[in-house]
Structure formats: C-alpha cells, structure tokens
Amino acid sequence: KAGVTQTPRYLIKTRGQQVTLSCSPISGHRSVSWYQQTPGQGLQFLFEYFSETQRNKGNFPGRFSGRQFSNSRSEMNVSTLELGDSALYLCASSRSLAGVTDTQYFGPGTRLTVL
Amino acid sequence: GNSVTQMEGPVTLSEEAFLTINCTYTATGYPSLFWYVQYPGEGLQLLLKATKADDKGSNKGFEATYRKETTSFHLEKGSVQVSDSAVYFCALTAMEYGNKLVFGAGTILRVKS
C-alpha cells in the first residue's frame, strides 16, 4: 500500500507571496492532519480534516488554511508569506475510526523556504 | 493541557551500547502514546505505540512501556547501531482532543562506530 505523499518536496517563495501544498493520504484513510516543524518551535499541529470538514484547529493565524476533497486528498494554503513561515510542513493520515484514537502516518514533508 | 517532556540531547553512544530516552507526559484522561523517528531529510516514521496502561510497544529492537503511575513512556534498545542515528519524538494523543498529536521536543541520537 502506498504511503502518504506530499508535493512539492521543496519550495522557495518570497515574502508576501502565497503557497499551496498538497497531500495524498494512504488509501482508505479519511483523516488528514497538517503539522509545522521548525527548529525553534518543534512540531506544532495546524489542523485536521475529515470528510471534507475541518475537525480540529491549532493556534495559527488565519493566513494558514486548508481544505479536503472528496477523495480525501488535502491542500493547505499559506497567504502573505512571512520569513517565519519557513519550515517543514508535514501531512499525516489516519483511518479515524469512531471512538478510538488512531495512529497517524506521516508523509516526507514539504520544505518551504521564504526569502 | 496535554504536554510531553523528553530528555534533552544530543545523546551520543558507541555501537552496541544500551539506549534509554526518557519521556514523561501530562494529560487528562487516557492518552495513547507514540514514539516516532525522523531520519535526516525525511518525515516521521512510527516506531512504536501503546494505547493503555502497562502496554509495551516494540519494533526493530526498540521497546517502551506505558507507565501510568509515573506518567512515563521511556524508549529503550539493548544494542544500538550506527543506522539508529536519528531524531526521536515522543508524542501523545487523546480522544477528547481528536486526532491531534502533541509532541515532545525531540532527542537527537548519534551512534559512533
């Protein structure tokens, strides 16, 4: 079974631009979560999508948004990029069975550099 | 709120040495506990997990036991290899917080030959 895939793997943008990152979950997984990894703040939860609805949200400004499509693929968007948005963005998928906490499987990440 | 505390690194060991990476947590309710590993330039890989007290997770020679009385989930391996060099993250999730993973800061492990 194919793992979680993320595209692109690397991105370089300049301040003020916007960016869209894509994530394809493991087949059959309906939940997709996004995390930001930086040397200073570590791994921080951005948001989770399930059945095309945002189910959970972390403490990030409104410039960070996401969506999920009917095939469970997800995208996240960052508008008006700031230098501090430079990070590794990780996507994780899970089956999200009702009533149980579920294991999340991560993709390789997208390395975003903002100049 | 929920939180995870890991021992600071880097941890430097010689090949075949015994490894312990300490992890303690604070959580309401009954969290599930995880260890993830990150190799250079890669995403996170699930190493092992435990979903209830006294459960032992194990994989590739690594083990960790869910200790509710000490709120700990320490990672151990009897004999490390150079290929184990990576960053190790302890994490938890709890049903009342949905699928959100809360991570420790990560511990860098360096194994010398």
Short descriptors:
heterodimer, A: 115 residues, mainly beta, 52% strand, globular, B: 6-stranded mixed sheet
Describe the structure.
- The complex is a heterodimer of chains A (115) and B (113).
- With 115 residues, chain A is mainly beta.
- Chain A is 0% helix and 52% strand.
- Chain A has strands spanning 5-7, 10-13, 19-24, 31-38, 42-50, 53-57, 64-68, 74-78, 87-94, 105-106, 110-114.
- In chain A, strand 7 (64-68) and strand 8 form a beta hairpin.
- In chain B, the strands form three sheets. In chain B, strands 2, 5, 6, 10, 11 and 12 form a six-stranded mixed sheet that branches. Chain B has a four-stranded antiparallel sheet with strand order 3-9-8-7, with no helix packed on it. A two-stranded antiparallel ribbon of chain B has the order 1-4.
- Chain B starts with a strand and ends with a strand.
- The relative contact order of chain B is 0.34.
Q: Helix and strand layout, with pairings?
A:
The complex is a heterodimer of chains A (115) and B (113).
Chain A (H helix, E strand, L loop, with lengths): L4 E3 L2 E4 L5 E6 L6 E8 L3 E9 L2 E5 L6 E5 L5 E5 L8 E8 L10 E2 L3 E5 L1
Parallel strand pairs in A: 2-11
Antiparallel strand pairs in A: 1-3, 3-8, 4-5, 4-9, 5-6, 7-8, 9-10, 9-11
Chain B lengths: L2 E4 L4 E4 L4 E3 L1 E4 L5 E7 L5 E7 L5 E4 L2 E4 L9 E3 L8 E8 L8 E2 L3 E6 L1
Parallel strand pairs in B: 2-12
Antiparallel strand pairs in B: 1-4, 3-9, 5-6, 5-10, 7-8, 8-9, 10-11, 10-12
